[in-house]
Amino acid sequence: MTQKTGQDITCAGAHRCDVPGEGRSPGLLQLMGQGGVLPTPLIYRKGWALLGYLSVESNRMHSRAALAALLWPSLGETSALTNLRQVLSNLNRFCNLVMEEGMLRIERSAVGLMRGGEPMFDIDLLEQAPCESVHLMAEQRVFLDGMEDIADSNFQSWLASTRQSLDAQLIDAAARCCDEMLEASRWESAMQLANALSKRDPWNEAHTRRVMRAHAGTGMRGAALKVYQRFESVLRQELGLDPDQETRGLLEQISSGHEAAGLIGMASARM
Q1: Is residue 177 part of a domain?
Q2: Distance from C-alpha of 187 to C-alpha of 195, rounded to nearest angstrom
Q3: Which residues contact 183 (CB under 8 A, 6 or more apart)?
Q4: By mean pLDDT, which of 36-40, 42-46, 50-54 is the weakest?
Q5: What are residue 63's DSSP bridge partners?
Q6: Does the pLDDT at position 9 exceed 80?
Q7: Higher per-residue confidence, 134 vs 24
Q8: Which residues form the domain of 138?
Q9: Is 175 within a domain?
């Protein structure tokens, strides 16, 4: 199954569809982004929230009663199901525009998003194409941004848990991408990404090693040594610990003047 590509629809967060080629992934639905105007023809915010839910919980059917209770917890079952029916009708129109007909399966008592293994949403890139998802971290995009007030604690709990999981996947994707850049000697690009990772998680020694390797790769051995010294100082002051053997070993390699090619050691750069 593939998405419809005739219109090259790319919808960022709850914004209207964007023109492809503006730092996003053409043809993929962007669920991570700033809150705003819903993509045409969606008219219900809960429709966008429901699509996000179904995208994460895809390839299985969900009872209408459960979805209605999730999104309208303060209403009685009859009223909640009526609202769900209206939202689904509108969401179905949207899905028929941007994906193959039938992917959004709406049955009398259940609803599900049935799709294959090809990327459909930006969140799919986290595992399938890590380097294409790095901009999500750089732009600090948030899954279903602005949807926190959609429903009560049950939906909010699911949203918080999903965001935490996606954030971990995003960090892992960025780390894998950085390792690929280091392996390909793309030092400047690796430097930017390694710095972003280290800033995001300053206690992570693997990120510190990535920064050191990128500096060494550009011939800036002094800068790489300073990165180590700064990390060592903070680690000792804050936690009373020393850098681990792997990081100290990298320091020795750089200090001894080994060529950049000998510093890659991708197995040791990974978490």
Answers
A1: no
A2: 12
A3: 264, 266
A4: 36-40
A5: 110
A6: no
A7: 134
A8: 10-170
A9: no
Give which of 114, 115, 107, 113 is closest to 65, Cα–Cα.
107
Nearest to 181 by CA among 134, 247, 227, 223: 134
Cβ–Cβ under 8 Å, residues 47 and 94: yes
Percent of the chain whose pLDDT exceeds 70:
83
Q: Are residues 222 and 252 in the same domain?
A: yes
Q: Which residue has the higher pLDDT, 10 or 221?
A: 221
Pairs from 175-180 (Cβ < 8 Å, separation ≥ 24): 175/206, 175/207, 175/210, 175/270, 175/271, 176/130, 176/270, 177/130, 177/131, 177/134, 178/210, 179/210, 179/266, 179/269, 179/270, 180/130, 180/131
pTM (2 d.p.): 0.76
Task: Kindly report, residue by residue over 90-101, the tens digit of the pLDDT.
Answer: 999 999 999 988
The two structure tokens encoding residue 190: 């690796």
Residues 124-146 as b or e (16 or more Cβ within 10 Å = b): bbbeeebbbbbebbeeebbbbbb
18: CATH: 1.10.10.10
Q: Which two tokens stand for residue 38?
A: 């819903």
pLDDT of the residue at 7: 33
Residue 5, pLDDT > 70, answer: no
